[in-house]
Amino acid sequence: GQQVMQIPQYQHVQEGEDFTTYCNSSTTLSNIQWYKQRPGGHPVFLIQLVKSGEVKKQKRLTFQFGEAKKNSSLHITATQTTDVGTYFCAGGGFQKLVFGTGTRLLVSP
Amino acid sequence: AAGVIQSPRHLIKEKRETATLKCYPIPRHDTVYWYQQGPGQDPQFLISFYEKMQSDKGSIPDRFSAQQFSDYHSELNMSSLELGDSALYFCASSLVASGGLPSYEQYFGPGTRLTVT
């Protein structure tokens, strides 16, 4: 079955540093979504990418979908303590999502 | 704005007991999903319903069953509970048939934490 891996599993940064998580799928994806889950919380939708090579920005967050539609990345510029949480990529259609293994981000002030 | 509602939020059961988890999707959403998330794990897809019909099935044990009712709420029924069933169970909903470009974003409820002792 489809597998979606993320690296790194965990990253601890100082506030103000940049952060990047990478997502790799074993199969071509029709779309990729990114979710953020705060400790003790539920996944919250961040963005959806559909086109090959697509890049989208949300304030300090930059999302990219690979040309082959098998990988994606999320880059956070100048992290803040509010960025703490686990970031998941997820692929799939309307019937289900296959979540990546997640990257847990810890930001120290 | 209305969100996905799940009940109960916490549930403690003993081995071999049964449990029923309820989910009330965002109004007018046509698709409901169930996920199981173990400690430190990513959410694992269990089952989904589109317009009250089962849409897809994932790694859902035979001891579990689910359905979506005429008012679009969904229930996940779990029988012969095992210690390994202890997890967070999320329900999510989405609006698939919006008539525009497809968007598969899912809105998650707060989850039900099931503890099996």
Main attributes?
heterodimer; A: 109 residues; mainly beta; Immunoglobulin-like; six-stranded mixed sheet; five-stranded antiparallel sheet; 11 strands; 0% helix; 53% strand; globular; B: 117 residues; seven-stranded mixed sheet; four-stranded antiparallel sheet
| Silhouette of chain B | elongated
Residue stretches of chain B low in confidence (pLDDT < 50, at least 5 long) are none
Share in β-strands of chain B: over 45%
Round the mean pLDDT of chain A to the nearest integer and report it: 95
- Return the string of H and E elements of chain A: EEEEEEEEEEE
Number of helices of chain B: 0
What is the CATH C level class of chain B, in words?
Answer: Mainly Beta
What is the element string of chain B, with H for helices and E for strands?
EEEEEEEEEEE
Can you tell me the CATH topology of chain A?
A: Immunoglobulin-like
Could you name the CATH class of chain A? Mainly Beta
The coarse overall form of chain A would be globular
| Overall average residue pLDDT of chain B | 93
Number of domain modules of chain A: 1
Q: What profile does the largest beta sheet of chain B have?
A: 7 strands, mixed
| The CATH homologous superfamily of chain A | Immunoglobulins
